[in-house]
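Supplementary Methods, section 5.1.

A reviewer requested that the exact input to the structure prediction be made available. We therefore reproduce it here, unchanged from the version used in the analyses.
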Amino acid sequence: MNSIGAPVHIGIGGTGSVSAAHSRQGSLHIRTQSAELDDGVPTRSLWVGNVDPGLSSQDLVARFGQYGRVESLRLLPDKECAFVNFLRVEDAMRAREDMHAGARIGANTVRVGYGKGESYATGDAQAMQPTRALWIGNIAAATTPDALGNVFRQYGAIDSARVLNHKNCGFVNFIRLEDAVRAKQAMNGKSVDGAVVRIGYAKVPPAKSDAALKLRNPVPSAAPLTASGQRAEADALTGTTQRGLGSDMVLEPGFSLAIDEDLVAFAYANQLPPLPEAVLTLPQPRLRELRKMLDSGANLPRDDEFDRAARELLPHTVELCTDYVGNVLIQRLAERAASALRLALVQRVAPHMATIGVHKNGTWAVQKLIDCAEPGEQRRLIVSHLRAFVPQLLLDQLGNYVVQGCLKFGCTAANDESNQFVFDAIHARCLEVAQGRFGARAMRTCLESTSASRLQQKLVAVALVTNAATLATNPNGHLLITWLLDASRFQGRMRVLAHQLAPHLRYLATHKLGAAAIGKLVDQAFEPDARDLILNTLFFNPDPSVLDDVLADHVQGVQVVLRVLQGSAIGDAEKARIADRVRSALDSYRRSSGSGTTNAAMQRLSDLVASTLAHSQPVYPPAMPSVAHRVSATSPVQQDVMPTAHHFMQTQQPLGFHPTNSGAMSFPASHTQSQPMMMPRYGGM
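The structure derived from this sequence is encoded token-by-token as follows.
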């Protein structure tokens, strides 16, 4: 229903509903309906009460995941409860039956029942993604903003702190995301001024200035849009409104696709330490003599000569690494040394490996030590000393090769000597690394490496999707979005990216790189619902200014519309509807500009619109039901008679779902002729 106050589904596949009402000022407000406990009607949603404040979302997912795949989970620390949404109602029934009598999770015995309406499992709150803003509940009545800020300042720089004394809660906004995650993990359930506080993530407040906004996120904020193009606003006290990536319809099942708090909270270094101040005491003539001996080709030195040279060089290992001749000597020792001698070399270099790795001479010695390192203690030392510096190394012209060298450690070994630490760092600092010239290319090399597992690629893909709107307009980040779209082959990648990019469409479609990403989503037939989401948001949005702003950009925006009308993935009937909408927008643009003249791009678009409409032949459809049926993207569909372009130009229905003579809905023929689309499960299915 289009009327204000009717239920509106949030996001693609959202299971919950919100009530929308205009305020006196005309703004749209969204109020989440209160969930009720109904033990008589099984649903996919479980309400869990009396939750231990010390538990995290990951703890609950791990516990309830024993009964089946968890689609989403929302933890409400201020209410000491949680909502768990399963993919299958049978799994929810099994979990409820097992825990209904009382099960102990953490320090508390929880109460479990069916959540009526699954209102907290909405598509926009499918996963509790970390933010740099914290909500602190149950604070002492006398707490001041300064006092609250002082408590949390030990975990990192704070942007602001405020207190709502009448609600016994407050908000602390950190500058860095990782500091907020560490603070939540350390302080949740702890006593502050005699009160045991509960901590959750909160909505990040808007930037104080345009400069700060551009620094943190160049993409302007926008409310999420449903598949039918309706605007929705979600305002949660705890938690974010980002799309969860854990259901079967996205990025392939079998892995938790939420941002990992533990990885984000890891204390990665913000800069590399300086090189140790040491002077090489060995004279250069002696170094050249030793190099000549070790580089003698077929006449390799005898073992006793090699051992004497090794004993002479070993005390000066760190100094030799950065020397023009000395780094070659270290490489030769690493190649020929026995395990004990190579371990001694690694033990001396490992504490300074990150710093030496970005030196023009030292990087070769470090890369050789990594290449020759044997499984066991040698690799464990390298991993433990490089872990904290991976983001900074990836951003460096030479250091990124040091990290890439660790990929050969493999993903099947123990975590303390495998290459998992590389992908953990990329996941935790994706936005920072992906926007760097060397960082983005190193990330792509890591993702395309034969040593990277599918789960490691997916771990990075989650971070890319979360930051897609920003990366799509960055010259370096765009390379990774292109990899995700073209090379990753993850099922559902188009769908999740469309959901992330649609709220920022007016900005992306007028940006050179952003328009390229939008074009890839539109000009594909593998995931038609992703394509329809973009088209509905652009052409059939209740807010006409989106299309107006895109058409006002004669360089990129007009080209996006041209690509849509010229694409092969859209049927003729849909093109006719789009062309009719564009014609109206062009007429409005000419009237507002006060001139009938247009540039070459606009004239080309006008000609294409006229040609498209001229070739569309209206055929009147069968009689329609007297009451218009509005169906969101989450409604079941069935194949039936497809209405004509003439009918759609009159009704302005969104793409992807079309009324039939029976009142049911059907996909256009262009959808069914492509690969079959996997329909998500909803409700009690």
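The CA atoms of residues 280 and 316 lie 7 Å apart. These observations are discussed further in the main text.
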